[in-house]
Each structure stands twice: as structure tokens, then as C-alpha cells.
Design goal:
The complex is a heterodimer of chains A (367) and B (221). Chain A has 12 helices and 14 strands. With 367 residues, chain A is an alpha/beta fold. Chain A folds into 2 domains: 8-108 and 184-266, P-loop containing nucleotide triphosphate hydrolases (Rossmann fold); 276-366, ACT domain (Alpha-Beta Plaits). In chain A, the strands form 3 sheets. Chain A has a 6-stranded mixed β-sheet with strand order 6-7-8-3-9-10, with helices on both faces. Chain A has a 4-stranded antiparallel β-sheet with strand order 2-1-4-5, with helices on one face. In chain A, helix 3 crosses helix 4 (139-152). Chain B has 221 residues and is mainly alpha-helical. Chain B is flat, with a radius of gyration of 20 Å. Chain B has one domain: MetI-like (MetI-like fold, Orthogonal Bundle), CATH 1.10.3720.10. In chain B, helix 8 runs antiparallel to helix 9. In chain B, 81% of the residues lie in helices and 0% in strands. Classes of the chains: A alpha/beta (367), B mainly alpha (221). At the A-B interface, helix 2, strand 6 and helix 3 of A face helix 6 and helix 7 of B. Bound molecules: adenosine-5'-triphosphate and magnesium ion. Residues 33, 43, 45, 63, 65-71, 224 of chain A line the site of adenosine-5'-triphosphate. Chain B: The chain crosses the membrane at residues 16-40, 61-79, 85-105, 146-168, 188-210. Chain B: This is D-methionine transport system permease protein. Chain B: Belongs to the binding-protein-dependent transport system permease family. CysTW subfamily.
Amino acid sequence: MQPLSTSPHAASTPATDPAGPPIVDFQSVTKRFPATGEGAGDFVALSDVDLSIRRGSITGIIGRSGAGKSTLVRLVNGLERPTSGRVVVDGTDVAALDEKGLRAIRRSVGMIFQHFNLLSARTAYGNVALPLEIAGVPAGEIRKRILPLLDLVGLSDRSSLYPAQLSGGQKQRVGIARALATEPKVLLSDEATSALDPETTRQVLALLKQVNADLGLTVLLITHEMQVVREIASHVAVLDKGSIVEEGDTYSVFSRPAHETTRAFLEGVTGVRLPAFVTSRMESEAAAGRSAVVKVVFTGPTATDPVLAHLGRDLGIDVNILAGAVDEISGKPFGTLVVAIDREVLEPARRFIEARGLTCEVMGYVR
Amino acid sequence: MSANLLWLIAAATRDTLFMVAVSALIGVALGGPLGIFLATSRKGELFPAEAANRILGMTVNAVRSTPFIILVVAIIPFTRLVTGTSIGTAAAIVPLTIATIPFVARLVESSIREVDPGLVEAARAMGASPLQIVFKVLIPEAKPSIILAITLTVVSLIGYSAMVGAVGGGGLGDLGIRYGYQRFMPEMMLAVVVVLIALVQVVQSTGDLLSRRADKRGRKN
Ligand SMILES: Nc1ncnc2c1ncn2[C@@H]1O[C@H](COP(=O)(O)OP(=O)(O)OP(=O)(O)O)[C@@H](O)[C@H]1O
Ligand SMILES: [Mg+2]
């Protein structure tokens, strides 16, 4: 792939944030794990990470397996300690706390897991009660708190069932109710929907979204499913080999991905799949008589604007549409079209398209 | 079989039950916590104490690899110190208990180790202290398996208690050897074996039932 124009970087988060100071602030965080094999040096899971999580946001963390996503999130509640740097959660540097101090912080940070991690010996009710028992809340008070929580996650009629008697989606709802029991400010979610089917995933995401909106809870969400980020994340950070390679609001990052990892991830969701008859004949050389295969990405207000029609009418350049998709990211339209344009008129066409705020990328050439 | 013999069997059964009950009780009371400690005290675990873990682990192995009958003889001075005698039912309880503690410890250790580490992680994330994790997560989650471990312990104790009969410990084993073998009364030997089998069956079925009741990992509860 050879981008004709380097697509502009995602707008970085402005220094002054209307939401106030970040709820979680990673400051030059490095995490090394001691070497396992002989002779091998320490493994650097996170290197010099700077990342601010906005209060009230739903921030998605994406990256390949082993990129350090879980490690990053586990730093927030001190399940993992940074080798250097600060992890400031609501004004407190978690890295400087001892175990006892951490326990207090952990009550203001809820966590949900891929495999739910519910106690098999406790009912749904008992599982939600656990964090309250741990926090030393009196029994009478616990009873008053649990019913509204089970109600919130839509499980009031399932309170006496054991996890084994619940479906995956119901188990994750119990997990969410449990995580919310101590009224945390931040909810950490490590692949919480990865074990669920698409429909159940949607329901659980809707619940997270609702909780985020109603309780003003900040959600920090790891996922390998771009679909999840696209659906609920207001912000996104891309991790690659222990470094943040891209971050910002989801729409900017997704519509103008600057890093190769982000692009690779997006391929599966917003990317369009070229038909085989095109890919099999695609060449990288721009020989005479060939047409350029161009990916045009429509974002923002122009996403619905018929730019290509204007191209024909105003410049007399005909384009041949090969593939396309119109999508939505954080509620805003986002379109991708792959078109074939005669090599001779590629330059004027490209200028025309880019002048209208769209991005263009030549993927190859076909006869 | 005469009423007198039946009376002997009843008395021996009572002695056996007494020996088994007392050594099981003390054995579980001491071996249980030891097992929990063994399961949680390696590096990076809840109560990291590498050296103590190593030393206790080796002690447990040492006792467990000593044949029971040798253990009985080897600790006679200790038994005398505790009970004032080296023969009889009370004296038999000492070696039985000593053998039970490491046995229970290893079984409980493995029960606790089988608990999903994700649950410990979840509890840690809630701000649980190590003791809270033991009492609210590890023990309740390992309960079905611990019940089976105790059942196995009691069943083994019934067998071992018959062995202490050989060294004058009283109980069913003693009866079987003295009457069945030395006085050649095969019907007595048979009766002893039948009672032992019945005891083991009752203990095993009760343990299985309790364990199944405590186990909520299946769909139908
Ligand atoms: N306790 C540990 N000891 C040694 N290495 C570790 C430890 N925990 C994590 N790592 C290493 O750190 C790297 C990042 O791990 P992490 O679990 O954060 O990845 P991830 O991005 O969450 O991956 P996945 O998507 O597969 O969950 C991996 O290479 C992993 O092997
Ligand atoms: Mg992970």
C-alpha cells in the first residue's frame, strides 16, 4: 500500500479539557517483567506510556495480543505495579500506595472480566454482595443496595440463581452489578464481551453505555473487537508493542488512522473488501493503460456528499466503483469507497477529492 | 454368634469410632490451615513466605513417606508424653493424628489450588485483604472438594485405626487380630471386616452427598 498523501494525524487531545483533570493519568509509565528465559533481558510490557483518560469518557484500548493492554489497565487498580512512572487515579498516585492504601482505591475502581469471574458458590445476589461485605458494609445496608443494582442490570428475577444457571450475558450483567456495588468512579473492562455472541455483546455494551451516561462513570475498555470500540467508545487509544501509537476521540482516529496497527484493525470493520477479480489483477506498477485503484474515505459532513458525482460532472472524469461501505462511528457517518480511476487523470481527480476534505489512497493498479 | 461376641464387636466399633473421630477432628483442625498455608505461601501468592513453605512442605513429605506402622513405633516416647501410656485407644490417637495432619494438608492444598485464580484476582480487584480472600473466596469455592478430602481422610483413618490394633490400640482391628487370628475365630474376623466395610460405605456416601450439595457448579441445584 502506498498512500499518495500522508493522511493528517488525528487531532490530539487539547490541553484544556472541559471535563476537568483526567480521572486516570498515566505519566511516563514503564512496566518491565523479569526475564523468564536464561540470558534474556527483562521484558518491557509498557514503555514510557503517557495517556490521560477523560472523566466520564468511554475509552477503548485496542492493540494486538501481547501489546500490553491488560497490563495497562491492571495498573489502574494496582493489580500490577509500574516499574517507573506515575499512575494517577482521581488525584492519587496509585504507584506510591502500599497494599493497604491500594485496597481503598480498589473500592473506587470496578472491574469486569472476560470470563466473568463470579463465585460459583454464591448466587447472583451473593456475588453482588461480595464487594460490599469486603468493604465492611453492614448486612442491612447491603440488602438495600443490592436490589436496585440487580434491577439496573435487569436481573431482579434471577437473584437467587447460581452462576452455573445463568447465561453468559446474564453472568456478565451480574459482573457489572458487582463492579458497580461500591459506587466506583472508574470501571475497568478487560475483554468483557469477548466470550459473548454478537447479540449479547450488543446488550452488554448498551448497559455499559447506560451506566456511563446515568452514573457518569468513566469506562476503560480493552477489546480486540473494533465493533465494540466503534459502538460505544468516545475515545480510543491504540497500543503497539507497549507504546501508545495513536489516541484521540474515536471518530478522528478511525476516520484518519495514522498508524499501521490502527489501519490493520480497522480493515475488519470499516474497511471494504475488494472483490477477488480486482485483487487478483492488481499490480503495484503504474504502467500505461492501467487504472489506479483508489480508496476514498469520506468523513464528517462530506460523508453524505456526492463528491464522486461532482467529479464526473465538473471535471468530466469517470470513476468506476469497485467496492464501498457507509458506516457509523460514534454516531457519525463514515464511508469508504474503492474506485478505479484512469491513470492519466489520477492527479486532477485526487486534488479535486482532497480539496473536499476526503482522503485518498492508491492501493494499486489494474488493467 | 453369641451375645458376648456381639457385645465385643459393639465395644470395638465404639472404640474405632472414637479414635477415628478424635484424630479426624484434630487432624482437620491442624492439617486444614496447614494446607491452606501451603497453597498460598509461595512467591507471589497471598502470604508469600517461601522459606516457611519449603520447610513445612518437606516436613509434610517426610511424615507422609514414613510407613504408618513405623511412625507408630517411632513416636512412642512422644505418645507416652502426651497420654501417659503407649497402648490403648487414647494412645493410638496420637500417631493417627500425626499421620492425618500432613495427609489432610496435602489434600486441602490441592483443593485450594484448584480454585480459579481469576476469582482471587476479582476479589483482589475489589480490595479484599488476603484473609478475606481465604475466607470469602478460597474456602467457599473449594468446599465441595474439601468435603471429599475430609471424606477420604476419614475412610483412610478407619483403615489405619485397624492397623493400630496390631500394636494394642484397641478397636475393630485389635478385635480382629486377637480373636479372628490368634484364637482362630474366622466368623469374628468376618464380622470385623463386615463392620469396617459398612462404616466405610456410610462415610463415603455421606461425604459424596454433602459434597454434591455444596457444589453449585452444575445446572440443576
Ligand atoms: N506476570 C508477567 N510476567 C511476565 N510477562 C508478562 C506478565 N504479564 C504480562 N506479561 C507479558 O507482557 C506482555 C503484555 O501482556 P498483556 O497481558 O498486557 O497483553 P494484552 O495486550 O492484554 O494481550 P491479549 O490481547 O492477548 O490479552 C505480554 O508479552 C506478556 O507475555
Ligand atoms: Mg489481555
